[in-house]
Design brief:
Layout lengths: L10 E9 L8 E9 L2 E3 L4 E4 L4 E4 L1 E6 L17 H11 L9 H15 L1 E9 L4 H18 L4 E9 L6 H13 L4 E5 L5 H15 L3 E5 L9 H12 L5 E5 L8 H14 L2 E4 L1 H7 L16 H6 L3 E4 L16 H12 L14 H7 L14 E4 L4 H6 L6 E4 L2 E2 L18
Parallel strand pairs: 1-4, 6-7, 7-8, 8-9, 9-10, 10-11, 11-12, 12-13
Antiparallel strand pairs: 1-2, 2-3, 5-14, 14-15, 15-16
Helix pairs in contact: 2-3, 4-5, 5-6, 6-7
């Protein structure tokens, strides 16, 4: 069989390799998967020997920034630092992030994600005092979500500064806008004397509207920064019934062990979801001039998992000042997370962190290989983990609704007309 082309119609993929955790087993399992009438079936279809190829359900990428994507050519990070990224995005945004600029950049990212085998995405949308620009972003997002319906399920979480809560009316206005788009309320948290009061404002605004929360938290290597503890305590004190997601949590990796473990105990008690962004964190954290970085910035994913915390990994930024690289490819995220976070020689069910875990955190359908599930699959020529993670799997097959899709990636030249520097 030509690996790149599967027969059309109902087929039985014989001699495939599945992560056992996806079918209630351990290790890697050789088996078969039948596709009949666009769904996974117990049996049936024309047999096709797949030579041990690994099969996954299509992925969920739960932390991205579609509104920032692909602005690097016109607004690069001048020094690769976190502050350099903030300033570059701040300067790029005014007068640019509009109904002409946003759609092609967002659409480009989604074309990449779709071709790589992603079925669902949560994106953050900036909202930093520029309310007119922010409303444009949400209008554009609504149209993009409609355009991509049936291919990629889209959610959006607003990204504000937590200090916006100094004006509770501003938080209410923002929350109303986001709620009207079935979105998620969120903010970047940082240590301030009024942080607990500001968090209370966000939790209250979300609870009143039946919304979930998604925070960017402690994206720093300062061991003294622990706003995660405040978030967990507020979640427990308020009895918040929605989902609370926290991302980054870099400072946990450098703070005293007892403090970090006590904080994780609170996170577990509060039932919060965690998303780790290892590629972006390694790019930005501990970057000091021409010095070699000492710290990776990845959060304590093993210790979280041991406490029953729902842990996911995601792409984060793509070709923007916060991360100069990336292609919305969850297999790349899997590969790098495995290397950076030492997921190998560990539990053999980390596959959930790219499928069911993010789906549950986002309240989305959980990708499945069970009979009756949509035949949305990613098939890689690799037959086991070292083969999978040693190559980029550029020849993977993606099936959506039982039909093999065209995996041609968009040409970067499509965005050239948007890349003129100010």
């Amino acid at each position: 069989m030509d690996f790149k082309t599967l027969p059309s119609g109902s087929i039985r993929l014989e001699n495939v390799t599945l992560p056992g955790c996806l079918i209630g087993q351990s290790g890697l399992v050789r088996t078969s998967v039948s596709i009949v009438d666009g769904v996974i079936a117990p049996d049936g279809g024309t047999p096709v020997d797949m030579g041990g190829a690994m099969v996954f359900p299509c992925f969920v990428d739960m932390h991205t920034h579609l509104d920032k994507g692909h602005i690097w050519p016109r607004s690069p990070n001048p020094d690769g630092t976190f502050m350099g990224a903030l300033e570059a995005v701040r300067d790029d945004k005014p007068g640019r992030w509009d109904a002409t600029d946003l759609p092609p950049r967002m659409d480009f990212s989604l074309k990449c994600a779709y071709a790589h085998g992603t079925r669902a995405i949560r994106t953050h949308l900036d909202y930093f005092g520029e309310t007119d620009d922010a409303r444009i972003s949400w209008d554009v997002f609504a149209q993009i979500r409609a355009d991509w319906a049936g291919r990629i399920d889209l959610q959006a979480a607003v990204l504000t500064g937590i200090d916006m809560a100094a004006d509770p009316a501003a938080v209410a206005d923002c929350a109303d806008l986001v709620a009207a788009h079935n979105g998620i309320l969120g903010a970047v948290t940082y240590p301030e004397p009024d942080l607990r009061d500001w968090l209370m404002t966000y939790f209250d605004a979300a609870a009143r509207r039946g919304m979930n929360l998604d925070f960017h938290v402690d994206e720093t290597m300062d061991a003294n920064v622990n706003t995660l503890k405040d978030i967990a305590e507020i979640a427990l004190e308020t009895g918040f019934e929605g989902k609370t997601t926290v991302g980054h949590l870099c400072s946990l990796s450098v703070m005293p062990e007892a403090t970090a473990m006590a904080t994780l105990d609170l996170v577990a008690q509060a039932g919060m979801d965690v998303v780790s962004l290892p590629m972006c964190n390694m790019y930005l954290q501990d970057r000091i001039g021409a010095c070699t970085p000492r710290n990776r910035g990845i959060t304590l994913v093993h210790e979280m998992k041991a406490r029953g915390i729902n842990v996911s990994f995601a792409s984060d930024n793509t070709r923007d000042p916060f991360y100069a690289y990336g292609d919305m490819d969850v297999i790349e995220v899997m590969r790098e997370a495995t290397r950076i976070g030492h997921l190998d020689h560990s539990d053999d069910d980390w596959t959930h962190a790219f499928l069911g875990n993010p789906a549950r955190a986002c309240g989305m359908p959980v990708p499945s290989l069970a009979p009756g599930a949509p035949a949305d699959l990613v098939i890689c020529r690799a037959r086991e983990w070292t083969e999978l993670f040693s190559r980029p799997q550029a020849d993977r097959i993606v099936i959506r609704g039982g039909v093999q899709i065209d995996r041609t990636l968009p040409d970067y030249a499509e965005l050239d007309h948007l890349m003129e520097a100010k």
